[in-house]
Amino acid sequence: xxxxxxIVDMLNDILTGELTAVNQYFLGAKIARHRGYxxxxxxxxxxxxxEMKHAERLxxxxxxxxxxxxxxxxxxxxxxxxxxxxxRLDLDTEKQSVQRLNAGIELARKHADxxxxxxxxxxxxxxxxxVDWLQTQVxxxxxxxxxxxxxxxxxKG
Amino acid sequence: MFVCVCRAVSRSQLLAVMAAGADTLxxxxxxCGAGGDCGTCRAEIADLLxxxxxxxAEPEAA
Lengths: 157, 62
Hints:
The complex is a heterodimer of chains A (157) and B (62). With 157 residues, chain A is mainly alpha-helical. Chain A is built from five helices and no strands. Chain A is 78% helix and 0% strand. The relative contact order of chain A is 0.17. Chain B has helices at 11-19, 25-32, 42-49, and strands spanning 2-4, 9-10. At the A-B interface, loops of A face loops of B.
């Protein structure tokens, strides 16, 4: 089927965000692991893989709509100098993703593309869960201080 | 935060080279390499070069 070009463009914009997040979180996980924060690294690694799966579903949807998934384009990858700064940068990235998904759902519903809307709603639930987790970490850092928080992130489990 | 990921240049390093006299994008690139690869960060570097009302003309003040 031939999809609406505005829907395909919107899905490609969301795909760009997801592919950027894959790189950002994957690097964040590797840096956290390199610095010895195994517990945190494990969680961030899972998030990176989650974003990769979101990207896969977006690509499949774009192809279904007869569009071409744009895997060439990336946004700015936000890289922190420390693990705690990285959590704040990841929170900004994920909040941006939530905004984009909400706008995408609105556009899809406007064009009566309920299949796309349902896909984006599913991704939105996951993105909101990630925002929630990141906000909790940022609050914990604020309450406990960097050192106490990071001491809890050393071991996997 | 690393403003320029390609050349691994942080925001604090950029502010330091600007404080030391680098006041154009080209000068920043010559001094520390930032912005000289993919170019994604050049707008962000240009923003750091702008004088700020709350800090006066900090980047220009060597």
